[in-house]
Design goal:
The chain is α/β, with parallel strands linked by helices and about 400 residues long. The chain has 13 helices and 14 strands. The protein folds into three domains: about 160 residues, 3-Layer(aba) Sandwich (Rossmann fold), CATH 3.40.50; about 90 residues, Rossmann fold (3-Layer(aba) Sandwich); about 110 residues, Rossmann fold. Helix 5 links the parallel strand 7 and strand 8.
Length: about 400
C-alpha cells in the first residue's frame, strides 16, 4: 500500500485557517508545490472545507484542509464558518494564516482561543511578506510569502516540529508474544464490502504480524472447523461484533475472545469510557433517546449493523420502547443532553482527535457513551469474557 493509500484516519490532519483573502489557499498550494486549492483575489472563494490527502515531507502521509474564511458574511457565511469550526475537531495541527496587510484582528484572536480550547498545536503564518515584512513576530510565528516562496520550507519544518509521534501505540500486538496464533472471524454477508476486508481487519492483521505472531482468517460459519484444523491452540479469537453471539458459543472458554470494535476502541483511547457506558443499557426506560453514531458514510444494506441489528438487539435486551436517532460520517450533534446513551462505532475512519472530541462532548453533557462491540458483548452476556484480554479493565465490571 502506497503512502497515498494511507487511510484518512491514520493521517495527520493539518488545517489552514484565517480570514477571507488572507491567502490560505495560496499558502496551501505553496506548501504542497501543487495547485490543489482554487485561488482568486475575490474574498470568499473557498466555500466548503477542501481535503487533500498527500505525502508532505518531512511528515509523510498527511491530510491538508483548506477552510472558508472565518469572517464570511450572511446566512451562507454563517454555515461556512460552522463547517470551518467543525474541521477543528479533527485537526491535529493548525496553521493560522494572517495577512501582513491587516495583521491580527478579532477574528484571528477568536481562532487562537478556539485552538487553545481544543488543545490544538498551531503555528501563525504571516502571509504576503513580499508586500510587507512584519518587524516583530510572536514566538510561534513565521513570515512567509505564498507568491515568491519565502520561508515555505521553514514553515513545513515548523509544522513538522509540532507533530507528536504515536507510532508506539498498538492495536493488539502488546497482548501477543512472538509465535502466537490468532484467529480472526470475518462474516461475509450482505453488509460486508465486496472484494476486500474493512479497515480494522486490515490494521489488526498488520499489527499481529508486527508482533511476530501469526493469524488465520475465517468466516463465523467455519470457526469450529478452523479451530479443529489448527495444530497450535490460538492465543485469542477476534471477531466482528455482529457475530459475537455465535463466535462466543463456538470458541472454547480457555481461549481469549474479543472483537475488532473493542480493540479499536482501546486503540482510539475510549474503551474504558465505553465499558462504563455499557452499564446504561440496564437502566434505559421507555421513551429514552439513544443516539447511534457511525464514523463513516456507506450505503445501508438490509442487515446493516447500525440501523437494523443493534436496534433489534436493543429492543430484545431492554424490552423498552426507545427513541433511536442516527448520525454518520462527520455529522455529530452539538446538543447531546437529550440522549440517555450514545452507541458509537469503533471509530476506525475517524482521527483519534475527532474520536476524543466526541467522547469529551458526551462526558461534558453527562451522557454515557459506549461502542458497538462493547454494547453487543453486554447484550449477549459476554462482556466480561470479551475483556479478559485486557485484565487492567476487569475491575470496571465488578
Amino acid at each position: 500500500m502506497g503512502l497515498n493509500s494511507t487511510p484518512s484516519a491514520n493521517r495527520m490532519h493539518i488545517g489552514f485557517f484565517g480570514r477571507r483573502n488572507a491567502g490560505k489557499s495560496s499558502l496551501l498550494n505553496a506548501v504542497t508545490g501543487q495547485e490543489l486549492a482554487l485561488v482568486s483575489d475575490i474574498a470568499g472563494t473557498t466555500t466548503d472545507p477542501v481535503y487533500k490527502a498527500m505525502e508532505l515531507l518531512p511528515l509523510g502521509p498527511v491530510m491538508l484542509i483548506d477552510t472558508a474564511g472565518i469572517d464570511d458574511e450572511g446566512a451562507l457565511g454563517e454555515m461556512r464558518i460552522k463547517k470551518t469550526q467543525q474541521v477543528l475537531n479533527k485537526t491535529d495541527i493548525a496553521v493560522l494564516v494572517v495577512s501582513t496587510e491587516y495583521g491580527m484582528t478579532q477574528y484571528e484572536t477568536e481562532l487562537l482561543q478556539l485552538f487553545s480550547k481544543k488543545d490544538i498545536p498551531y503555528i501563525i503564518a504571516y502571509n504576503k511578506s513580499d508586500i510587507i515584512t512584519p518587524e516583530i513576530l510572536p514566538e510561534n510565528a513565521i513570515s512567509v510569502s505564498a507568491k515568491n516562496g519565502h520561508n515555505i520550507n521553514e514553515l513545513k519544518e515548523k509544522i513538522a516540529s509540532l507533530y507528536k509521534n504515536n507510532d508506539d501505540k498498538k492495536i493488539i500486538a502488546d497482548k501477543l508474544s512472538a509465535g502466537d496464533m490468532v484467529v480472526l472471524v470475518v462474516p461475509i454477508d450482505e453488509s460486508a464490502p465486496k472484494g476486500r476486508l474493512i479497515l480494522p481487519q486490515q490494521q489488526t492483521i498488520r499489527d499481529i504480524l508486527e508482533a511476530g505472531a501469526m493469524c488465520t482468517v475465517c468466516r463465523d460459519t467455519e470457526l469450529i472447523q478452523t479451530l479443529a484444523a489448527l495444530k497450535q491452540k490460538p492465543a485469542m479469537v477476534i471477531t466482528d461484533s455482529q457475530a459475537f453471539g455465535r463466535v462466543a458459543k463456538d470458541t472454547p472458554s480457555d481461549i481469549l475472545l474479543t472483537s475488532f470494535s473493542i480493540i479499536m476502541a482501546r486503540y482510539k483511547g475510549f474503551l474504558e469510557q465505553a465499558v462504563h457506558g455499557a452499564a446504561m443499557l440496564d437502566k434505559l426506560q421507555d421513551g429514552d433517546k439513544v443516539l447511534i453514531c457511525e464514523g463513516c458514510s456507506h450505503h445501508r444494506q438490509c442487515e446493516d449493523i447500525g440501523t437494523v441489528k443493534i436496534p433489534a438487539w436493543l429492543k430484545e435486551y431492554t424490552g423498552k420502547k426507545l427513541q433511536l436517532s442516527w448520525t454518520s460520517g462527520t455529522q455529530f450533534p452539538e446538543e447531546l443532553s437529550e440522549y440517555s446513551l450514545i452507541i458509537h462505532c469503533g471509530g476506525c475512519m475517524l482521527t483519534e482527535r475527532e474520536v476524543s472530541y466526541r467522547m469529551k462532548c458526551a462526558a461534558d453533557a453527562g451522557v454515557p457513551v459506549t461502542n458497538y462491540g462493547t454494547a453487543i458483548a453486554m447484550m449477549k452476556g459476554i462482556l466480561k469474557r470479551s475483556l479478559e484480554v485486557f485484565p487492567e479493565l476487569a475491575s470496571l465490571l465488578e
